[in-house]
Amino acid sequence: METSTVQGLGQTLHTNSHITVLEVGPRDGLQNEERVLSPDDRIALIERCAAAGARRIEAVSFVHPGRVPQMAGAEEVMKGVPRGAGVSYSGLVLNRRGLDRALAAGVDEVNVVVVASDTFCRRNQGCTTDEALAAWDVIAAAAHDAGVPAGMTIAAAFGCPFEGETPPERVAEIARRAEAAGAFEVALADTIGVGVPAQVRDLARRTRAAASSAALRFHFHNTRNTGYANALTAVEEGAAVLDASAGGFGGCPFAPAATGNIATEDLLYALERSGVGTGMDMAAIAETGTWLGTLLGKPAPALLGRAGPFPS
Q: Can you tell me where the transmembrane regions are (predicted)?
């Protein structure tokens, strides 16, 4: 992968010259919002993100609508997304039933969540971490047979709202299990926004050692204002993909006081000013974040839409 050298603050940073931003607004950005958007509105959000250059979009979640009503109508959304523009659409699944729905709906990739702590895993998906890993093995094998790439997101990798610190050895072992079942990608998720750059470095290196064949992705929340520092650290550590949500919306319905993802537009600003390209239109994403805020009835947490880029 090509690298760039960026001078700043008296030091030289060596970073990837290009990184993929996976737009998670249509799924993780909406799943914790009080206002439930219609499938048509969610399709419009996806269309805007695709038009702004997003080439990987987490479009839907195949969970029971009784658990997460914001994600009802996943099949309808997938039926309406724009095809043929080089966009890969992923769907979140937690079990074999969810996978069957995802495959029938025509997703391009599958994202399976495994929570790194038992307490949170029970609240999130009604099972222990080991039981979630057993389900992952079944899902990964079936997805492989169907020719659809399956990746794993390790949730609460940086900390759990119920058990406290997440042992990094536990995260590495889950990553190893992910790779053993053929994960094309392993994502480390700071689900409740407690991580700091030192943890990013440590977990990135442990995960690469445990799952060297899988691409490394990170998912950050800005709950304690460390999300963007963590994202830039992940780039320095060789991350291939960063998750972000247009407008900075998001959170987990099953985690107390969970707040939004890092905002796509704010992340793009930080990356581009650091010499890291994404292929996305920062202004268009900022407009999308503001538009989404009007649909949800509240201002977008993102700052770029208010301050504007620099130079203007």
A: none
Q: Which pLDDT belongs to residue 259?
A: 81
Residue 233 tokens read as: 């650290």
DSSP type of residue 278: -
Residue 213 tokens read as 């064949």
Return left, alpha or beta for 122; rule: phi > 0 is left, psi -120 to 50 is alpha, else beta: alpha
283, containing H or E segment: helix 282-296
* 5 pLDDT more than 70: no
- The string of DSSP letters for 165-190 reads SPPHHHHHHHHHHHHHTT-SEEEEEE
Q: Nearest CA to 199 among 181, 215, 173, 220? A: 220
Domains, in order of start, for the chain:
3-307 (3.20.20.70)
pTM of full prediction above 0.90? yes
Nearest CA to 116 out of 57, 55, 45, 190 is that of: 190
- What is the tens place of the pLDDT at every residue in 158-200? 999 999 999 999 999 999 999 999 999 999 999 999 999 999 9
Cα 169 from chain centre = 22
Q: pLDDT tens across 46-79, in order? A: 999 999 999 999 999 999 999 999 999 999 999 9
Annotated active-site residue in 49, 127, 160, 252: 252
Q: Is 252 a catalytic residue?
A: yes
Q: 41: part of which helix (H) or strand (E)? A: helix 39-51
